[in-house]
Amino acid sequence: MKVCVNGVLRLCVLLSVFPAADLARADAEENGVPLSNWKERSIKEIRAELDRKYTAGDLKAKEIVVEENGDYQMPTFDLEAAVVVLDTSGSMRSPETSLLDQVVVDRLLVFLLSIKNLSHIVLLDTDGRLMVEWSGEKGSINRRKTERVILGIAKLVARYVLHSESSWDLGIKKAVEVAENLTGKLETEIFLFGDEYTSNFWTRLGALKKISELPPINVVQAHANLINAGKRPKFDSAANFERYGKYLAELTGGSYYQFVGPHYSKSWETVVLVKMARIHPSETWIFNEEPIRIKNWNDTLKKEFEENREFLIPPPEDSIRVFEGIELSVSSEELHDGSVSCFLQRDLLDGSESTDYRARLKRQHIDSWEIVEWELVLEHEL
Question: Domain containing 188 — which CATH number?
Answer without folding.
Answer: 3.40.50
